[in-house]
Amino acid sequence: MRRALYLLPLGLFLWLAVYFALGLTKDPRLIPSALVDKPAPAFSLPALYDGAPGLSEKDLTGGVVILNVFASWCVPCRVEHPLWMQLSKEKILPIHGIAWKDTKSNAINWLKQLGDPYDLIGHDPQNQAGIEWGVYGVPETYIIDRAGRIRYKHVGPLYPEIWKNDLLPVVQRLKNEKKAS
Amino acid sequence: MKFLMILCGTLLFANAAIAVNPEEVLKDPALEARARTLSVEIRCLVCQNQSIDDSDADLAKDLRKLVRERLTAGDSDEGIKKFLVARYGKFVLLRPPVQGETYLLWFGPLLILLLGGIGVIVFVRRQRAKPAPANEAGLTADEEKRIAALLKDNS
């Protein structure tokens, strides 16, 4: 009994050591979104292309949609771009984009060069919508359900494996939710 | 000498490096002071261990602007913090708020100090309670003799 008491500090130390060691394996850049399971924030952006319809939270309701925040100056956006092109061909769900902190001409040129996978594109040079959405690093990808609620957020480039393993199951689950109700 | 004077001169005008650009500064000094104190407590999410007051990142600049806009619009410090937490999460606050889930973080060290202190007190009391050995140094008669011999040799 007394010996157990002497082992207490050692036990505490080991517990803390394991706790902190586990903490080290986590990526500090991944910040849990405060917005998951909350309604998409109100925002209204002009269209990137002159004459095209703009983008607001109302465009994100009615079906399961994806919102992808990108910028022409963002290298990881270039990495994930082919995946968006492929998904837009497969027509699984609407993909909307926000050109974040980018000039109009740079963003348009970028899409001309690499292809435009987006249904609607809002232009956000001043980070107005970005702050509402809690955007802190492009690319960011959100999945929004039929009711206009954010259900999933992915920060960083979207690789095909991540899409297949993490995002696609969410999309399918949300689509089934729609059928059920 | 000249070098020393130049060094002193530059040090005199040296200022803590801050990222706030002159054009961001509010005209009202009271509001600007509030903006500065508030900015120090808000994390720049790009360069995570800097506040938006320190950071030169673009996002930090946007948030500094936002803080100043909301202050000018008459928002309270707490209101601005709530606004940011609602969008970026609690991580945006550099100083963790004292609340249920952070009690261990804030008071854990104190608790450990308390436990250690109790341990020390208990240990010291026990030591004192032990009966002292009859002979001060606890030596046998034989050892006493050897010491006496050694002392004699030295003198």
What are the main properties of this structure?
heterodimer; A: 181 residues; alpha/beta; two-stranded antiparallel sheet; 43% helix; elongated; B: 155 residues; mainly alpha; Helicase, Ruva Protein, domain 3; 0% strand
Overall description:
The complex is a heterodimer of chains A (181) and B (155). Chain A has 181 residues and is an alpha/beta fold. Chain A has a single domain (32-180), classed as Glutaredoxin (3-Layer(aba) Sandwich), CATH 3.40.30.10. Chain A is built from five helices and seven strands; from the N terminus they run H-E-E-E-H-E-H-E-H-E-E-H. Chain A has helices spanning 2-24, 75-90, 104-114, 128-133, 160-180; strands at residues 44-45, 55-56, 65-70, 95-100, 121-124, 140-144, 150-155. In chain A, the strands form two sheets. Chain A has a five-stranded mixed sheet. In chain A, strands 1-2 form a two-stranded antiparallel sheet. The radius of gyration of chain A is 21 Å and the shape is elongated. Chain B has six helices and no strands. Chain B is an all-alpha fold and 155 residues long. Chain B has helices at 2-13, 29-40, 58-72, 77-88, 103-129, 141-154. Chain B has two domains: 15-95, Orthogonal Bundle (Helicase, Ruva Protein, domain 3); 101-154, no CATH class. Chain B starts with a helix and ends with a helix. In chain B, helix 2 crosses helix 3. Chain A binds chain B through residues 12, 28-29, 31-35, 41, 101, 126-127, 130-134, 136-137, and chain B through 45-46, 48, 58-59, 62-63, 66, 85-91, 112.
